[in-house]
Write a structure and sequence with these properties.
Blueprint lengths: L32 E3 L2 E5 L2 H12 L4 H15 L9 E7 L3 E5 L32 H12 L9 H9 L1 E2 L2 H14 L8 H7 L11 E2 L2 H12 L3 H4 L2 H13 L5 H5 L4 E3 L2 E5 L2 E5 L6 H11 L12 H21 L10 H4 L2 H8 L20 E7 L3 E7 L8 E3 L4 E3 L29 E5 L2 E9 L3 H14 L5 H6 L3 E5 L2 E5 L4 H9 L3 E5 L7 E8 L2 E6 L6 E4 L1
Parallel strand pairs: 17-18
Antiparallel strand pairs: 1-20, 2-10, 2-21, 3-4, 3-11, 4-7, 5-6, 8-9, 9-14, 10-11, 12-13, 14-15, 15-19, 16-17, 19-20
Helix pairs in contact: 1-2, 2-3, 2-4, 4-7, 11-12, 11-14, 11-15
Length: about 550
């Protein structure tokens, strides 16, 4: 009789205990997915399948991540597109960071913003050079195994043959009607014709296709992305800008280059949390974790007033510093290491009391996005791309299907601020990929998309896992809070009425919201021993798969 071998998985790189895989304290229709060869997770099932298709074809985690990113431009256009930006963290014996955000037009006239309080959300003024395509190419050049064109195959198939619009995406599309349908100027008409045929958003389950999108992806694939920055597509974008009052030129595209950057980190409860350095806001999560580290938050129940209050106040202080100091790294006046100093965190921590901080001020330290994750036996990828606010600017380049983002809204018009708008400059960015390691070994990628919710989501997921011992899926399932500004805080419906009442009594201005889109959408893939544990956000349409 053949012997039966049961292989132990006792090697543990992070605090995921076997018993926690049976513990789902919050309502969830999902469970942790497990496999030994690889895992993928996105906010849209067809995109996740695109990643698995690459893995099953002999590709690696980078091939899978890029294929999923490309597919998401088609199947979740309400959050990202070919005309957006991207960032990535890749583990390959060490952690590598890629900043593929684009700069504002070099000839951007600052006087165009005279009399404005903020950069407008639609039109040409907030459009910066899109960097997502350059991220796909750069990652593939360094790590890809499969032919570049193969990574586009699922996305092209979805674009040309069509796909049924998933429910959460349909809701976001419907909400976008009130933003984009009233736009009447000439430059907005191509966008409305592609994304709102018949002057309406497609409904859940309705098949939507974009031949233009498929044709453009095919051109990008066949030229290795060169057409987007050096060739015909770049010229089409520049020509449309010139014809309709935009400022992007062919020179803005030819000079664009993604940059390899050193990730930034902090230690929290014995693990190292990694983020992309500025111009992204990942540092806000790290500052908040540094502040929170000084509290024994685990002694309070997860669903307790103390746990919610301490997390909110730590995040509030972190945002105050982030909004004052973070900008394009070439223009920052405050060094990152000063903001992440543990002694400075202790000073900020002393500002937290039992009552709300009415308006958090920055300190003075001394000395509508899609997130995806992929992993195999050697590589692990944390990747995020976005058109920023939903579809972005409302500008679509005719005959391309490319909707341009409105990332320039991240600039401030405040005179003398390091993030003040100017030509040839990267704006403050909301999208941030995350990663966890322990003792120099990779645990895996994680992320929560959603504007200013992103560092807040990072904080809450990390606290759920490291302070409360939740498995990755439970950490995503747990009800969330969302600090807005001042004393205003949003709570999900699942947060108990008692906690909402007690937060109000402490001075928070609480509103309970039914809109799950306000609380982020995340994915997690961690590795323990030889096993991958993958989880996907219940607030989105997506799935995690492992094999």
């Amino acid at each position: 009789m053949p012997s039966i071998i049961v292989e132990s998985n006792q090697e543990s790189n992070y605090p995921l205990f076997p018993s926690s895989l049976l513990d789902y304290p919050y309502p969830s229709g999902r469970r942790v997915m497990m496999g030994q060869r690889g895992a993928v997770a996105t906010s849209q099932p067809l995109a996740t399948l695109a990643g698995m298709e690459m893995l099953m074809s002999g590709g690696n985690a980078v091939d899978a991540a890029v294929a999923m990113a490309i597919a998401l431009t088609v199947v979740e256009p309400t959050s990202n597109g070919i005309g957006g930006d991207a960032f990535a963290l890749v583990w390959d014996e060490k952690l590598h960071g890629l900043n593929a955000s684009g700069k504002s037009p070099q000839s951007l006239p600052v006087e165009a913003f005279t009399g404005m309080n903020n950069v407008p959300e639609t039109g040409w003024l907030p459009v910066t050079v899109p960097g997502a395509v350059s991220a796909w190419r750069k990652l593939w050049e360094r790590w890809g195994k499969l032919p570049f064109e193969q990574l586009f195959a699922p996305a092209i198939r979805y674009a040309q043959e069509g796909f049924p619009v998933s429910p959460v995406t349909a809701q976001a599309w419907k909400r976008a009607e009130r933003i984009y349908l009233p736009l009447t100027r000439t430059e907005f008409q191509p966008f409305k014709e592609v994304f709102f045929p018949g002057n309406r958003a497609p409904e859940a389950g309705e098949v939507w296709r974009s031949e233009l999108h498929g044709r453009t992806l095919r051109a990008i694939a066949s030229t290795g992305g060169e057409t987007f920055y050096q060739g015909e597509i770049a010229q089409q974008i520049a020509n449309f800008a010139a014809d309709t009052g935009g400022f992007l030129t062919i020179d803005d595209f030819t000079t664009h280059q993604p940059e390899w950057v050193e990730p930034i980190c902090t230690d929290y409860r014995g693990l190292t949390v990694w983020e992309i350095p500025p111009n992204g806001q990942g540092i806000a999560a790290l500052i908040a974790l540094n502040i929170l580290e000084g509290f024994d938050i685990a002694k309070y129940k997860r669903e307790s007033i103390e746990s919610y209050h301490l997390q909110i106040e730590a995040m509030k202080l972190a945002f105050a510093d982030t909004h004052r100091y973070i900008a394009d790294s070439r223009f920052m006046e405050m060094p990152v290491e000063h903001l992440l100093n543990k002694d400075y965190a202790a000073e900020r921590r002393n500002l937290i009391t039992e009552n709300v901080i009415p308006l958090a001020e920055h300190g003075i330290p001394k000395g509508g996005t899609v997130y995806l994750a992929a992993a195999d036996g050697e590589l692990m990828v944390s990747f995020i791309q976005s058109n920023y606010m939903g579809f972005g600017s409302g500008i679509l380049v005719p005959n391309t299907g490319i909707a341009l983002h409105n990332r320039g809204v991240g600039f401030t018009l405040e005179e003398g601020h390091p993030n003040q708008i100017a030509g040839g400059k990267r704006p403050f960015h909301t999208i941030i990929p995350g990663f966890l390691t322990k003792d120099g070994k990779p645990l895996g990628p994680f992320g929560v998309m959603g504007g200013s919710m992103q560092p807040q989501g990072h904080l809450q997921v990390i606290v759920n896992m490291l302070d409360y011992g939740m498995n990755p899926q439970a950490a995503l399932d747990a009800p969330r809070w969302h600090f807005v500004s001042g004393k205003r805080v949003l709570l999900e419906e699942a947060v108990s009425h008692n906690i909402a009442q007690e937060l109000t009594e402490r001075g928070h201005e609480i509103r309970v919201s039914k809109d799950v889109g306000l609380f982020g959408k995340g994915q997690i893939i961690f590795r323990q021993g030889k096993v991958f544990f993958a989880a996907s956000e219940p607030r989105a349409d997506g799935i995690a798969l492992a094999y």
